[in-house]
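Illustration 12: DNA mismatch repair protein MutT.
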Amino acid sequence: MLDQYGKQTKCLVALDSIIFGFDGSKLKLLLVKRGIEESKNIWSLMGGWLQPNESLDEAAIRVLKDLTGLENIYLEQLSVFGRPDRDPIERTVSVTYFALINSTDYENFDSGSYHAEWFDLDQHPELLFDHQEMVDNAISRLRNKAAFHPVGFELLPSKFTIPQLQKLYEAIFDTEFDKRNFSRRILASGLLTKLDEKQKGFSKKGAFLYELNSQNTVKAASSNLYFVPSIDRIV
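Figure caption equivalent — predicted structure in token form:
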């Protein structure tokens, strides 16, 4: 039986992370320029290789930390890409993850071997190999999860206003929501806790700040809460 292992063709396993950020108005994508692509205009996702002593999740966490210094962020396994010709250099299977962070908390990432930069999701450079397909897949998953779970809150500061939250969901779903209807539904969900604080510097009256009520997130998820208006038209 052990002889069968030696007869198999070996292949590499890569971990590629689609890292979404939000700058207060637009959804962002963190891309890296490694300096090894033939074209100067081709960028890639954050990625690295699985080591023999690691699980997939451990490898994804390590790669992300090594490249960006980021840790303790939302990171979820997404899909597997394994077309034989996806990497022209070596037979490689890629396991994708998507991460959510508040992009205003992080500047560009640089090292001696690569340069990383935030790009608008709807206006970014050409991507390496099948990385655009990976991004499209991640956007679909993000929209599906954000419709039923408070996953999008990972992209906001810990304290936020209802208008900020609406802008986030408009960016995720690439659509506009009715202001009054969105506010009514999100407040009725029980997901928010109103704080005795107001956002300063944007208007004389100011808008009240809220934070996520983590005690109600499980209840909302179990009831398939439609807190995004007209979600049946979006997912």
